[in-house]
């Protein structure tokens, strides 16, 4: 596995790089450390799209997964401290679990949120709520936070 800081992520970017077996069946997942900068949402979308394509996920599910990841990453960049990590997991044909971990709440809002009007932001978690079958937040003892969502296959 190589480490790369190009294109907004640090990690392998290879959807086949991280595979393991659960209950006798192969689970597919991607775990990448991402840079904490505005361009990272686009890099995350590319990572997810490549993984979903490689895993031959139903196209009806792909757009929702990509949008949820984009919203969670954008939220982390704008409202949280580094480090930032993307976790994507596909088991069997049931659905996709996505998670974005960050370093906890930022002391101040990100550049984009600070520069726009109140009605121009704040809809990301509403979008996640509308698209995900279930979602939530896990606060870790070390102060980091993971926001996750699960989208069932159609």
Keywords:
seven-stranded antiparallel sheet; globular; alpha+beta; disordered N terminus; 7 strands; 154 residues
Summarize the helices and strands and which ones pair or pack.
Layout: E1 9-10, E2 18-22, E3 25-34, H1 40-54, H2 59-79, E4 84-91, E5 95-102, H3 111-115, H4 124-131, E6 134-139, E7 145-152
Helix pairs in contact: 1-2, 2-4
Q: Kindly state the percentage of residues in helix.
A: 25-40%
- SSE topology string: EEEHHEEHHEE
Q: Briefly note the structural class of the backbone.
A: alpha+beta
The overall strand count is: 7
Put simply, the count of helices is 4
Calculate the mean pLDDT score and round it: 79
Major sheet details: 7 strands, antiparallel
Query: Unreliable runs, pLDDT <50, ≥5 residues?
Result: 1-24
Per DSSP, what share of the residues sits in E-state strands of 2 or more residues? Answer: 25-35%
Shape: globular
Radius of gyration: 15 Å
Q: How far apart lie the N and C ends?
A: 33 Å
Word description of this protein:
The protein is α+β, with helices and mostly antiparallel strands. Helices cover 32% and strands 31% of the residues. The chain contains four helices and seven strands. Strands 1, 2, 3, 4, 5, 6 and 7 form a seven-stranded antiparallel β-sheet that branches. The longest helix is centred in the middle third of the chain and has 21 residues, at 59-79. The relative contact order is 0.17.
